C-alpha cells in the first residue's frame, strides 16, 4: 500500500512495520477504532464553527466603536478558517485540547485578516471587494481602516496573552514572539 494511504485514523491490518504486523501491535479494540475513517469535511466544518464563535466573542463591539466595527466587519466576513484550524489540529495531534489552542488560533486568524485588510487599501491593491462584500476601507474609510489594521494586529497579541489558560506564560510569550516575526 502506498504511504499516501496511511493516516493516524486508518491503519490497514496488513501493514508490516519491522516485520511485525499491526494485529500484533494493536489490541482488537484499537484495530476496530483504526477502521473508522476520519471525516475531514466534518472536522473542518466543526472547527470553523468553533473558531467563528470564538472570534465573535473575542472582538466585542466596544470603544472605539468605529475601529472595532471595522475589525469585526473584516474578521467575521467568513472564510474557510484554514490557518486557525491547522493551529487547533496541531495542538490536538500532540494530545492538547481545542480550548487550549483557541486563543492562538484566533490570533492567527486576526493576523491573517489584518494582512488582507492592509492589502486591500488604496496604496496597495485598492480592492473594492473581498469575499463578495465591500472591503473595509470602502465601508469605513481609509483612515479608520488603517487604524483597524493596526489595532487588529496588536489585539491578536493581547488576546493570546490574556485568553490562553493552562499554558506556561513563557510558552505564550514565545508563541507571540514567533507570530510577531511572521
Radius of gyration: 21 Å
Which percent band covers the strand fraction?
under 5%
**How many domain modules?**
2
The overall pLDDT average reads 86
Provide a descriptive summary of the structure in words.
With 182 residues, the protein is mainly α. 64% of the residues lie in helices and 4% in strands. The strands form two sheets. It has a two-stranded antiparallel ribbon. The protein has a two-stranded antiparallel sheet with strand order 3-4. Helix 3 crosses helix 5 (82-93) and helix 5 runs antiparallel to helix 6 (98-120). It is globular and about 65 Å long. Residues 1-22 have low confidence and may be disordered.
Task: Summarize this entry quickly.
The chain folds into two domains: 1-38, no CATH class; 39-181, Farnesyl Diphosphate Synthase, CATH 1.10.600.10. It is built from nine helices and four strands; from the N terminus they run ββααααααββααα.
Structural features:
mainly alpha; two-stranded antiparallel sheet; 64% helix; Polyprenyl_synt; Farnesyl Diphosphate Synthase; Polyprenyl_synt_CS; magnesium; 182 residues
Amino acid at each position: 500500500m502506498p504511504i499516501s494511504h496511511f493516516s493516524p485514523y486508518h491503519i490497514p491490518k496488513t501493514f508490516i512495520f519491522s516485520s511485525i504486523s499491526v494485529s500484533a501491535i494493536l489490541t482488537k479494540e484499537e484495530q476496530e477504532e483504526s477502521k473508522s475513517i476520519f471525516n475531514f469535511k466534518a472536522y473542518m466544518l466543526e472547527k470553523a464553527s468553533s473558531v467563528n464563535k470564538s472570534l465573535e466573542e473575542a472582538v466585542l463591539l466596544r470603544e472605539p466603536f468605529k475601529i472595532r466595527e471595522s475589525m469585526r466587519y473584516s474578521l467575521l466576513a467568513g472564510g474557510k478558517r484554514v490557518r486557525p484550524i491547522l493551529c487547533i489540529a496541531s495542538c490536538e495531534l500532540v494530545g492538547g485540547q481545542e480550548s487550549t489552542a483557541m486563543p492562538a488560533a484566533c490570533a492567527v486568524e486576526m493576523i491573517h485578516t489584518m494582512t488582507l485588510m492592509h492589502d486591500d487599501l488604496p496604496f496597495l491593491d485598492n480592492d473594492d471587494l473581498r469575499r463578495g462584500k465591500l472591503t473595509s476601507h470602502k465601508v469605513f474609510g481609509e483612515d479608520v481602516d488603517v487604524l483597524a489594521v493596526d489595532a487588529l494586529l496588536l489585539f491578536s497579541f493581547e488576546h493570546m496573552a490574556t485568553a490562553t489558560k493552562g499554558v506556561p506564560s513563557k510558552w505564550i510569550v514565545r508563541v507571540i514572539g514567533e507570530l510577531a516575526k511572521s
